[in-house]
Amino acid sequence: MFNDEAVVTMISEYGFVTTMNFFIYGEITLKDADMLSLGIIPKMLIMYEREWPYIVLIDYVNEDDARTFNMFQGTKMTFIFGGEVPNKEVLAEHIGSGITFLRFKYDYLGAGRCEDGV
Fold it and tell me: Domains (ranges, CATH) in the chain?
């Protein structure tokens, strides 16, 4: 469930959003996140001949949370696109290449669809 105001607005405008989730084994900076975001725009123009509106949410997993939830420290990045995005796996590979370029190890957790904030 998303309660970020921008995401809720996007859902109301498009009816649903497409999410793509990554777990990065390290603490990604906002500069790194901006760099990844900038790489999405040209790829979308090449693949779809248009841009999709999108939002990037970043959630850091600190040592206490990692111990509590039996996971590793790192950064969860969620890319949220307005409406349906075709060929999600190709776009996910492109984002993953950007994460690797920044010298981070990551796992792609998959794509999903969210309607009405659930």
Answer: 5-113 (3.30.70)
